[in-house]
Design a protein that fits this description.
- By secondary structure, the chain is of the alpha/beta class.
- The protein has a single domain (20-184), classed as Collagenase (Catalytic Domain), CATH 3.40.390.
- It contains 6 helices and 6 strands; from the N terminus they run βββαβββααααα.
- The strands form 2 sheets. A 4-stranded mixed β-sheet has the order 3-4-6-5. A two-stranded antiparallel sheet has the order 1-2.
- Helix 1 links the parallel strand 3 and strand 4.
- The N and C termini lie far apart (75 Å).
Length: 185
């Protein structure tokens, strides 16, 4: 078979007859990020979301259609929730909704002083909800264990995503502790 007769995908991955599938059939397309948050943040939340998603293996995101960023949840039972994982239901695909208004409250002033703190808060919630998605699709975890699984998943991936920053911030720890103590007063 000459080079001219070859299909562009041929020669990569597993072959079936004349054509081949991509080497990683779980590779996902670019996920939709829907930003409905009304306030201005000192960082680009959509760009941050894409960067954080790179820290997650593609297999963990398969079946997840979108991430919606909003002020708050409309339903009373979720008023104080930071994020929600909505599993696939009928024709509705699986998705994540994050209430940035609940994460950052009414005072984004602190975020202007320490934008990294805001990014970390967001990363923890995002990874927690991705943990719910991953757990739902791949692990047989009971409902009681689901929150613990998602919490551990969130912590593990947050640390993985910000590992480089931990070394940069080490000299600033005393100052950060002092600021936090003043904010708690």
């Amino acid at each position: 078979m000459g080079g001219k007769d070859r299909h562009p995908n041929q020669g990569t991955g597993r072959k079936t007859g004349k054509f081949a599938f991509p080497a990683n059939p779980l590779t996902i397309e670019i996920m939709k990020i829907i930003n409905q948050y009304s306030r201005r943040l000192p960082f680009n939340i959509e760009k941050l979301t894409r960067k954080l998603l790179k820290a997650v293996p593609n297999e963990h995101l398969v079946g997840l259609d979108s991430i919606t960023l909003m002020d708050e949840f409309q339903q009373n039972k979720y008023k104080n929730a930071l994020g929600l994982y909505r599993k696939k239901h009928g024709l509705q695909p699986a998705r994540i909704e994050i209430a940035l208004g609940n994460i950052y409250g009414t005072s984004p002033f602190i975020l202007c002083l320490i934008p990294l703190a805001g990014k970390l808060l967001y990363a923890k919630v995002l990874f927690h909800e991705i943990g719910h998605h991953y757990q739902y699709f791949t692990h047989s975890v009971s409902k009681k264990e689901a929150e613990g699984f998602a919490e551990n998943y969130g912590k593990r991936h947050t640390v993985k995503a910000i590992k480089g920053w931990l070394y940069v911030l080490r000299p600033l720890r005393p100052a950060i502790r002092w600021i936090n103590s003043k904010l708690d007063d």
